[in-house]
Amino acid sequence: MPDSKSTTIASFGDLGLDSDIRIHLDTKMDIREPTRIQRKGIPALLQDSYQPGSGPKIPRDVFLQAETGSGKTLTYLLPIIHRLIVASTRPESTNSGNHTKGSGGPSRALGTFAIIMAPTRELAKQIFSTLEALLNMKLTRGQRFHWIVPGIVNGGENKSSEKNRLRKGATVLVSTPGRLLDHLQNTQSFKVEHLKWLVLDEADRLLELGFEETLKKTLAILDERKGGRRNDKNAGAWDLSTVGCDYFLRSPALPRSRITVLCSATLPTQVRRLAGATLSNPKTTPGGSDSDSNNDNDDDDSDDEPRYTAPSQLKQSYIEVPAKQRLVALTAPDGDATVPLIDDRKPPPCNKVIIFVSSCDSVDFHHALLSRAPSVRKTTEAQASTTNQGEHEEDGDEEEADDDADDNENTTPVEPVALVKKNSARYNLAESSLLLPGVHIYRLHGNLPQAIRTDTFFRFSQSKAPAVLVCTDVAARGLDLPNVQRIIQFDPPTEVADYVHRIGRTARIGRQGEALLFLLPSEMEYLKILKQQGLSPIATTLDQQLRILAQRRRRGREIEVAATDLQMACERWVAGPAQAAYLSSVRAYATHPSKEKHIFHVKQLHLGHMAKAFALQGRPTAVGSQGSKAHAQGKAPPQLSQSKKAHARQRDQQGGEGHETGRPVNKPAQKKMTNPFKRGVINTDEFSSGDITALKGPKSKKRRA
Ligand SMILES: Nc1ncnc2c1ncn2[C@@H]1O[C@H](COP(=O)(O)OP(=O)(O)OP(=O)(O)O)[C@@H](O)[C@H]1O
């Protein structure tokens, strides 16, 4: 929401924008009031201020610095389009015939007047869409400006079709840095001699991605071509595209020479350095926060340590979670009892979550886990319907343990929501989650093919269903994904600036949003670093998380039980059929009758090699310790009764040691995590953080086979 405090500038009309633009913004884009950065930046870009000095008037460059989601894209696009429209309006005096009759004024053949450079392909596409949406406007006063043609050149796209488009002319061109330089160096027909604006969007990211050299080369070429190519064969020849366009090319509405505009939500030292290297006496327009009334000074040239601002309506919190509890905490809600990971009570479309992790592999893992790990609740429901017993939940621990063991088999296969093109069907764009029913899970990282990245971005943006996007920092900068309600930083970022950009995917344009940072106990000092930079997330606790998890997943059940159910469901899924099959097979081996023992004896099995036979890298420890102990002693595991054998199979699938055998437990910690029959007790250690009373042990009696 734009700043309501402003009394002097309330509309885009007050900023001096063309009325067609204003009408279009209002009626087609639902944009009425300018944001703070727009109130400051648009006038600065509509009317040049000049470098001091008595020489030729040189317009000052502009540095737009404002928090994430504050509307920087329109801040630079609107003045560019406005000025091109105004300049193309033929002055009365020229109608008398200063130029050839019938020459229709400016055309796309004049070449490129504005270049917008974006660090990532997704961001370039997003800016291009906004540009297209703006240029799609209907005119009321009869001017024609269909000659203002938007263009995009983007890494990963077909270069020769880009060359064709550049040859025809792209008046406002969006690009990624490498591809732009490539065309400047290799595409002869790419005309930039009339270039009036160079916008470097997400300047800090451009630097981080190592584009500094590319930028320097680009600037050098642009400077060299200011007045046309030096070694151009056609230099000096009459350029037909300019016929009848004098009035336009000399219009005072256009900057006298190229203006460079640098945009950044953060102001790290490198950006200042880049500004120093690329901008000429820049006018800085800090946008601050829409709700920050103390930040009205222009030309904020302070050299203090960089400090970051996040939108003030963005609720930032952190949670200290030991590694072993992270998975459970991820799918649980935070301290605000009304908002779980995905708030299924909120009506769509305000129910999207982005989870940032540190690597592509981790994205793939968590995407798969959230999509396909079984829902514990489903199991309980299935059990209730099959047994038709209407058991009290408190009594159901062991039954559920048994059923949970079957859960992998019983769960319905995941339906891919959308498959991408025939040749890449293996990339499911989104999967309907079993763990979070009704939620679609997406993933985005740099190792995915570009077409998949683009489609994922589009579909997640458009999703009307609750959706989770698991991603790396490829999605951290500049992307405008509507209706993101919550950001989860499951791995802390490597740069504080990334923290700001990540959380900036929510709470955009004055909307509400939440950001939750996960920290290990050993990482808590990171909060000091954040604080030094002006960022102070508030604490939420795992207890709060788990309490709500329990309410949500298992009404009336103990928190730890719910948490462990969830953890185990994930573990079973991860260990998957290989471990289950291995464990069951080894146990089954031990059930051969004694008369066959001389043939089938566990002692004769090499458990490590058996594990290999199930494609496991090592022996699953739980059974391994048991099996190997028996193995070492030359004993078979104790014989079980038939009814117990069936149960043992189920138990084995969960990797637990059999408490029924009465064997001493060698590894209590491990047993706690793996023995499903004692989880009511073990949960106290694994998922209680202190103020939750210890749970009762299991009550139940009979188990179903
Ligand atoms: N005045 C406005 N009123 C309402 N919505 C607006 C306004 N200006 C821009 N928007 C919308 O706000 C969203 C965010 O804008 P934009 O992407 O330009 O922000 P940004 O400052 O560039 O963010 P970031 O730093 O994260 O890249 C866009 O969907 C845009 O259409």
TrEMBL record:
Location comes to: Nucleus, Nucleolus
| Highest taxon, organism lineage | Eukaryota
The cross-references to SMART domains, in alphabetical order and at most eight, read:
DEXDc (SM00487), DUF4217 (SM01178), HELICc (SM00490)
Sequence ranges of Polar residues compositional bias = 278-288
Q: Where is the composition biased (Acidic residues)?
A: 293-304, 392-409
Q: Name one GO molecular function term.
A: RNA binding
Every Helicase ATP-binding domain range: 53-285
Show the catalytic activity. ATP + H2O = ADP + phosphate + H(+)
Domain writeup: The Q motif is unique to and characteristic of the DEAD box family of RNA helicases and controls ATP binding and hydrolysis.
This one is known as ATP-dependent RNA helicase
Q: Which organism is it from?
A: Dimargaris cristalligena
Q: What is the lineage of its organism?
A: Eukaryota, Fungi, Fungi incertae sedis, Zoopagomycota, Kickxellomycotina
